[in-house]
Design brief:
heterodimer, A: Ubiquitin-like (UB roll), 2 domains, two-stranded antiparallel ribbon, 7 strands, B: Methane Monooxygenase Hydroxylase, Chain G, domain 1, 3 domains, globular, binds flavin-adenine dinucleotide, binds iron/sulfur cluster, binds FE2/S2 (inorganic) cluster
Amino acid sequence: MSNHLTNLTLKIWRQSGPNDKGAFESYPIASISDEASFLEMLDVLNEQLIDQGREAIVFDHDCREGICGTCSLMIDGQAHGPQRGTATCQLHMRKFQSGQEIVIEPWRATAFPIIKDLMVDRAAFDRIVEAGGFITAPTGGAPDANLIPIAKPVADASMDAAECIGCGACVAACPNGAANLFTSAKVSHLNLLPQGQAERWSRVEAMVETMDEHFGSCTNHGECEAACPKNISLDFIAMMNKDYRKAKFKNRKLIAQI
Amino acid sequence: MNMTDITTTDMTRTQLNAKIPAGPIAEKWDTYKSDMKLVNPNNKRKFKVIVVGSGLAGASAAASLAELGYQVDVFTFHDSPRRAHSIAAQGGINAAKNYHGDGDSIHRLFYDTIKGGDFRAREGNVYRLAQVSVDIIDQMVAQGVPFAREYGGLLDNRSFGGAQVSRTFYARGQTGQQLLLGAYQQLARQIGLGNVRLFNRSELVDTVVIDGRCAGIVTRDLQTGAVESHAAHATVLCTGGYGNVFFLSTNAMQCNVTAAWRAHRRGAYFANPCYTQIHPTCIPQADDTQSKLTLMSESLRNDGRVWVPKNVGETRPADQIPEDDRDYYLERLYPSFGNLAPRDISSRAAKRAVDSGRGVGPLKNGVYLDFSAAIKRLGKDVVQERYGNLFEMYERIAGENPYDVPMRIYPASHYTMGGLWVDYELMTTVPGLYAAGEANFSDHGANRLGASALMQGLADGYFVLPYTIGNYLAPMLNKPIPGTDHPEFVAAETEARGRYQQYLNIKGTRSPDWFHRELGKIIWDYCGMERTEEGLQKALSELPPLYEEFQKDLRVTGDGESLNQTLEKAGRVDDFFQLGMLMCRDALERKESCGGHFRAEYQDDEGEAQRDDEHFAHVAAWEWTGDPMRATRNVEELDFETIHLAKRSYK
Ligand SMILES: Cc1cc2nc3c(=O)[nH]c(=O)nc-3n(C[C@H](O)[C@H](O)[C@H](O)COP(=O)(O)OP(=O)(O)OC[C@H]3O[C@@H](n4cnc5c(N)ncnc54)[C@H](O)[C@@H]3O)c2cc1C
Ligand code: SF4
Ligand code: FES
């Protein structure tokens, strides 16, 4: 049976647009079921605001199943809140207590400008993928799917990386606003697979350099891994760095002549 | 609205022509491809194609069309194409690869899909779907989709409801995510190369028809509120399904019918709106703040056993109820398919169990899905390997550990088989306007089999549209098309601006969500898992006044010049209202039970759906007349040349 939390105070970042300065505002929540999700609590608050003729709080969300990567809240200074390996939308109120004050902010990172209130623009992630996060395999003409067996551990490792949902928590959690965890997950997903070998070196080069254009540099804080809702491992950053160094040192023209 | 209008609607038998190529079923697609008109590679760049939606259907179509050389503009209301709802699909994708030598074939997948759809789908389309299914897997593996593998390195498969072979490919519990990332990456490559222009956070709010052809679309920029026109030679809608009409569903929060509905209002027929799928394995509603329901993949039914207590009013916890006091009702009623009975059948069986007072959980609104036998048989490790992430997801939401206590599940709205009517080329009744993926009605008849939506979205986008669009464009070479300064575009823009301004101007007392919830309740109660003439009449008498109230008493705060999610929602709820009326009318007119459309009046002695092939072996394609309550019902007769119509039995 559901219990209720009472007397919560939400301190929420309000900012009317990209050029507004923005400020915190406080909102009381008298009572909310512990079965409610964190975002359902915001839904309830928004309904109240509309009832009072006030503008609803803007926040990004869609699947509410932890898979689309749209939700993006800093809760009490933690990206996606207190529960490890959990996206904001899967966080439930049973993880909080009556009487608590909860501070809610948008992702803070230079590469993610604020659009309004708690919503940011993460298009820089797409630029990284457009630079090389793909295998050139035009439609039609692919060989039979079982032609190249892939050892299970390799397929599994690739899948571990591919689970990244592109939420940006890693960037928000990083003191430097670096996107190395995201980029390394994208690079490793493809660089681990036999199908990804042909473009392995050009891929890592293009993606890392595009990342550097938009985001800060990684100084190995490791905050990203702790914030990641999909538990993407720091090992992928090591793998990406190794591939990047190799790509830089390789004289690929020579190799092509062999 | 006058009730007699509804019951006496004249069934206008305008026959629709699906343009299915003649000849034996296995040769139709090849015949089409060898007969179709071609656009020379150098001329392709002279054509502009608009693709709305970037899910599996949209991303694959846009990437393939751009690879061919067409200029492509992609629109999505999401911030990134990768967020489309396809990302949430868990279980898998079907393909007739027969990698396991268990008797699968193109014909069998074709047959299973027609039968699964309760003989209400078009043979020609479904056969083609089964044919190209094998290419999809090849394509996705080449693009780097890390499908599950066996230890020898070959692809693994699992079984899904409604099939007796193992033909479902999967990537852990995130198949949709991995397939969408594959298609999105192909799209991203084309964006990077400058062949595709991406318009994100941009919502289609109207389509424009000039001289009988689709001339383009009108969009609203969600960040600035700016309404703009875009002209093209052809437009493809890949905008997903309308399951959110029920308010509570497994769909992502933003899924909506607006694109399809606005096209419908401009002349595209809407087919079989009453065919909606209620998925049997979702987490039951916990309380009234609930904003959406979460699906537990159907693949769980491979190893989980569904049961309820035999006794009404049972109070013991699950593990203390002895075997003799449990009713494994799916195994009892459908011995050959057991827990893998198709979705519609499993859903209704669950509803009956709960309605009989034997529901489980604090609100008595669920049935058990029990893994204890599987854990005993296979060991916890194997179960964890297969379903670990689903179990975790369940625990996060329900707060119970399914390794120790059985999951609780209940049916929820999940997928919509109905959608824009399209012919064999996936063209709607508006020339130059196409619909693909869940947005069209084409392949699943009255019920979709698990793991077949991903297959259809990718089939449409990768392997059908790139051919059929060329056939339409070829004769348009070097002919001018109307520009966005054409009066029709200007009028559509003005109308759209006025509509959004009006939502702001009403200044009533109720939020869009309030109306959506009320609408959803009516549709769920009367046009959900079980429908009756009386209930549908009741819904049709309640909907128009509620819609009128929406138009008079809506409250949207904020403005129209910056990002305003309340305003976005208002537009979507408006279209859901109109669709809801059409759904109920469609359900009322279809006086038979088939697949997901179960009319209580039409059932056999054992409570199974009773089709009426003599009168209803057709598609109902509704034509807009200015009011959904007065839409005209046209039909496309379904010819079964290859498969004999039979009673759909899973006993
Ligand atoms: C929880 C869940 C699990 C599922 N699991 C499976 C499974 O295991 N196997 C399977 O086969 N199927 C599954 N399905 C069904 C399947 O995921 C969907 O049917 C399919 O992915 C739909 O793809 P689509 O490309 O047609 O549309 P979507 O992926 O829904 O994409 C729609 C796109 O259109 C855009 N759009 C919509 N309207 C507008 C507009 N007005 N303006 C601009 N853009 C617009 C959106 O931004 C989005 O990009 C599942 C569905 C759900 C809900
Ligand atoms: S690496 Fe983790 S935190 Fe970063 S974008 Fe991917 S899922 Fe989000
Ligand atoms: S809303 Fe999709 S991951 Fe949170």
